[in-house]
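#structure-requests
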Amino acid sequence: MADSELMLFGERLLLVRKKRKVSQDDLAKKLGVHAPVIGRYERGEVKPSIETAARMAEALGVSLDYLTGLSDQEMNQEVMKQINELQSLKDEDQQHILKTMGALICEAKTRLTFG
């Protein structure tokens, strides 16, 4: 990770941790590290291993892509579970489901726009 990526990771880690009301100590216990290490990650002083970053994302219920800045969507666990289920289906079934989802999303956006 470059310095700007490291800072983004730390900032997002801090924001998500606070949003989920998880203390540094509680997160550290889940990861098997000391609480001050979480603070160092959040301040961008050190970077976690990919395994530790993945465990942080899982513990906080967000995607690793979100924490690292590859996505601006937090992707909650239920959405990720559904996507994984979808990917396990045959291509033909995936296409039908995606087409239906696309129509439902379009309808929902129309309702938002036109009330």
